Amino acid sequence: MSTSSDSKTIAVLNGPNLNLLGTRQPEIYGRQTLADIEAMCVKHSKSKGFDLRFQQTNIEGELVSMVQEARTCAAVLINAAGYTHTSVALLDALLTVDAPVIEVHLSSPHKREAIRHRSVIAPACTGVIAGFGALSYRLALDAAIALVDGSLGITEG
Ligand code: CA2
């Protein structure tokens, strides 16, 4: 259901295994936990005048539902994790979002195994920010806000 406050809300959606951040593979994903990243995103978006909805799930269908519920938000950031490379259902959900959608990754998938080189969801995204650890989320928030306030001058793509 749409609410008036959604126009000032940015949704940050996180896929499978990202709840494990900070516990394993810090050389790839950094030492920050997902809670640390959420706190940073809340603080940053607040400083720019936006509310934040930050969610994580390990279940593909739940991620699809989260995208559907975010359709009325000002912008959607999504780190779909492994589903980035596999999920047509997620692509279909993201294609229904009129607001800017930014694909976010902590690591740079193109530097990694070939299976990570293809993003199934990229056709539904305005842009991709990857490879900067937790900073990817802040850079993506800035990109989303610039798209929302029109300061980039980009209206298509
Ligand atoms: O770099 C990213 O943000 C990824 O979306 C992370 C996904 C990976 O499948 C994508 O190719 C790139 C994997 C997330 C797994 O997260 C973990 C965190 C800590 C320990 C183990 C896994």
TrEMBL record:
Keywords: Amino-acid biosynthesis, Aromatic amino acid biosynthesis, Lyase. One of its GO terms (molecular function) is 3-dehydroquinate dehydratase activity. Pathway: Metabolic intermediate biosynthesis; chorismate biosynthesis; chorismate from D-erythrose 4-phosphate and phosphoenolpyruvate: step 3/7. The active site is at Y29 (proton acceptor), H105 (proton donor). The record marks R24 as: Transition state stabilizer. It catalyses: 3-dehydroquinate = 3-dehydroshikimate + H2O. Signal peptide: none annotated. Gene3D superfamilies: Dehydroquinase, class II. Substrate binds at N79, H85, D92, L106, S107, R116. Its EC number is 4.2.1.10. CDD domains: DHQase_II. PANTHER family: CATABOLIC 3-DEHYDROQUINASE. Catalyzes a trans-dehydration via an enolate intermediate. Belongs to the type-II 3-dehydroquinase family. This is 3-dehydroquinate dehydratase. The lineage of its organism: Bacteria, Pseudomonadati, Pseudomonadota, Alphaproteobacteria, Parvularculales. The gene is aroQ.
